[in-house]
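> run fold Major Facilitator Superfamily protein
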Amino acid sequence: MSRSPPRQEKGITERDDFDTAATPVISNESIKSTINGLHLLDDPANFPSGFHIKAVMTVIGSFLGLTGALGFVNAAGVIQSYVTENTLKDEAQTAISWIFSLYSFFAFGALLVSGPVFDKYGCKIPIMGGGIAMFLGLLATSFCHHVWHFILAYGFLAGIGAAFTFGPFIGVISHWYCTKRAIALGISYSGGGVGGVIFPLIFRSLFPKIGFGWSIRVGAFLSLFLLVVGWVMVTDRKEEFSEVGDGGVFKEVFNSIDFKIVYKNPLFGIIVACLLFNGLAFLISIVELPLYASNRGYQDSDTYLLVVVFNSFSIPGRIIPSVVADKWLGRFNVFCLINCFSLVVFCIIWVPFGHYLTALYVFAGCFGFSSGSVLSLSASLVASIVKTADVGKGLGTAYFVLSFGDLVGLPIGSAIATGSHASFDHLVYFLTCCAFVGACVSFIARYMYGGFNLKRV
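> ok
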């Protein structure tokens, strides 16, 4: 007996067990539909198959946009190291760390707002507004001389601007890819790693020659150029996927602040908890690693290169595991393996051999690879358990919770690493514990999604 096809509305297969008004995340019971072992919330027939010029251009545009949007995020260690030893040399390290914690907090936390804006209006409007805010914030940063100046210009204005560019550049990928979403997200996310290589090298060269102010201005104009090119290239499909109700985007923003998601959908809460500890290990490491090397007596040129190595290896880290996940092992399996690799890198490299510069370079490369993998896979994991129409809200909610770890992470790191060799060793032990918890929670998430069976999930 033939079955009638499911009713379509706005390009999405209707699912009775999904209540978008309550939460963007599906319940455990609703994960039923599978293709080649992958749970799907959207009909793959609604996505282009094979080569599609707009889809490919969107990935390239997202890559370039994220190079500009996340370049300053991944160069935070170089910038903090410079201002600590020069512009703000008379300020307490803990006070300086709040500048970069607030920047990361707003860059990720404001996705809670930019996500529903993207779901309602598509990618063009938020990227334009965010790009302008980020550029103005960076220009203002170039004239800063006090901590509160940096907090307002860099932490607040540039941070919020980054969120309104970063979120839509990630979310728009889900409008074009379904079964190959992890690969596409990995390619676009690798732009952040490229930016994390380009900007530290620029600052390393320009800081001694033209000073902090003009170096930041050069970086701001380069970032703006990349954002504009990316904005031109990306195309969304908001007419097909938008499901924002009559209350408009402001009601959606208000409704998206719903922490009942955590106990309504434990899988979502577990994934976010894992990302929280991953984020602590990543953010503190990339910022404190140059300071750790300086504390050991190594030159600034060497410490800046640590950030370059870290971000260089994050580029293949954002792509290779995503390909393996989509083609062979599954996203949750690869996520668990990468978390275990991160823990091993801490335990066998930084903890016992961190006082050697060569070991620090090896650690920077290995952990850069694994952290890049976690960042790109986390977006595909969240996208795996939300409908395409709600990707913005899903990512926004996840990164909003994650941003609180960013907010307190650097002040905690600065409070632990007070300046002595022993205090920096204690910081490494703390980061190792974060990596351990992240690895454990990743296996819990994998079990909740696929059980104990050894299969592709």
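The chain has 16 helices and four strands.
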